[in-house]
Design brief:
This protein is an alpha+beta fold and 408 residues long. The chain has helices at 36-50, 62-72, 77-90, 94-98, 102-109, 116-132, 140-144, 151-162, 171-181, 190-208, 217-231, 250-253, 313-325, 373-376, 383-393; strands at 270-281, 284-289, 300-301, 304-307, 331-342, 345-355, 368-371, 401-403. Strand 1 and strand 2 (284-289) form a beta hairpin. It is elongated, with a radius of gyration of 26 Å.
Length: 408
């Protein structure tokens, strides 16, 4: 399930009674009976009033919706929008995606992270080309069989693109339903997951049978659940008085919105420290391609060395000096450090720059070469390494020089 798919916009929240003390214990969630038809209608009408004008909501093209759902996995909406718009311009359909070279796909995806999503998408496009004549399938079993398409993504495509009564449960939907039902067990428990999917199925089926409302009701009720979790029923400080389901929400009624859903245990933090060297020769920089398997597979990067976690500059410089000797570099310039976090990994990257004495290919990595700045934009290069390259080219932005032969 996607825990960060969509986030609430900033702004003041209206105080609500979920902050009151001494909550009463809610009845067992298993005995809860939601008026599904009423709830479905309230969600649809609320969604029609407040929905955000996201670009993928302007189409029912299953390919466009599929790409948006893939990109939104573990990624915020604001980040995805420009990537999705550029992707749809350059890779507008299944046939283009099936024939897309991986390097070009990585370049377009660069910065979104979780690159396995891209590889699955290319593989899935190949399946659609070979098994479905290049036409996006409409059958639930065929969609669910595509590489990288799980239960949630299949339900999103079926309901949003084809208005099929298929349920969806992502992180936002799970939070909305758990609060509404008063489920105080961990959302990772199998019986809880099954119950949430069952309730989501009841809601979308109720929407399908709701003849009083015209329109694409299955699509709208599922998107309404997602939107509600993104804008109102947020992880912290939910705007309960603005919620269309406040009257039937057990967590709101019993002042439990702060404790439902039960927070997940945080994974142990893993720290990584690396040093990278921008080795230039006559205006070109040496870049190396990562292996075809593993983290950031197929991306280009500066030559580097991973260290055991340390923030001490002395060890960083020692590693940089070792790298510099491969290129005949006599002095180095410090480019500073970059810090970023991916999932439970906190990564520190320290960069250095130097002029190579010889235009030779280091034998430690045969998948490398000298590349002019004009080529960088056409290559899939790790975002952090692109930042170091930008610093390396910016005059006056570099720190002191030190000699490769100096004692550190």
């Amino acid at each position: 399930m996607r825990s960060t798919r969509r986030r609430a916009s900033s702004g003041k929240r209206i105080p609500d009674r979920s902050r009151r003390t001494a909550p009463a214990a809610p009845p067992s969630a298993s005995k809860q009976h939601l008026p599904f038809t009423t709830v479905a209608g309230q969600l649809i009408q609320w969604f029609r009033r407040v929905q955000r004008p996201l670009p993928w909501r302007q189409t029912s093209d299953p390919y466009a919706i599929w790409i948006s759902e893939i990109m939104l996995q573990q990624t915020q909406v604001a980040t995805v929008i420009p990537y999705w718009e550029r992707w749809m311009r350059e890779v507008p359909g299944v046939s283009r995606l099936a024939a897309l070279p991986l390097a070009e796909g990585l370049r377009l995806w660069q910065g979104l992270g979780y690159y396995r999503r891209l590889r699955h998408a290319i593989a899935a496009a190949g399946v659609i080309e070979s098994q479905h004549g290049g036409v996006f399938p409409t059958e639930p079993a065929a969609i669910a069989a595509l590489p990288g398409v799980g239960r949630y993504t299949a339900g999103a495509i079926l309901s949003i693109a084809f208005n099929h009564p298929a349920p969806v449960v992502d992180g936002n939907v799970a939070r909305v339903l758990a609060r509404c039902l008063g489920i105080d067990q961990p959302l990772t428990q199998r019986e809880v997951i099954d119950r949430l999917w069952s309730v989501a199925a009841d809601l979308v089926n109720a929407a399908a049978s709701l003849q009083a409302l015209a329109g694409r009701r299955c699509s709208e009720v599922n998107q309404a659940l997602m939107e509600l979790g993104a804008l109102v029923c947020t992880p912290r400080s939910p705007a309960c008085p603005q919620c269309p389901l406040a009257s039937c929400c057990r967590a709101y009624r019993h002042n439990l919105t702060d404790s439902i859903p039960r927070p997940k245990p945080r994974p142990n933090l893993v720290r990584q420290t690396s040093v990278a060297l921008a080795a230039f020769h006559r205006g070109r920089v040496w870049l190396e391609q990562r292996p075809d398997q593993g983290v950031n597979a197929g991306f280009w990067q500066l030559p580097g060395q991973e260290l055991r976690f340390s923030t001490r500059g002395r060890e960083h410089r020692q590693a940089a000096l070792s790298l510099a000797q491969r290129f005949g570099i006599e002095s180095l310039e410090d480019l500073g450090r970059l810090d970023h976090t991916i999932m439970n990994r906190r990564i520190t990257l320290r960069g250095f720059r130097g002029e190579a004495g010889l235009r030779i290919a280091p034998q430690s990595n045969p998948k490398g070469g000298w590349f002019a700045p004009s080529a960088w934009s056409r290559m899939p290069i790790q975002t952090s390494h692109l930042e170091l390259l930008a610093r390396a080219r910016k005059k006056g932005a570099r720190a002191r020089k030190f000699q490769v032969t100096e004692s550190v």
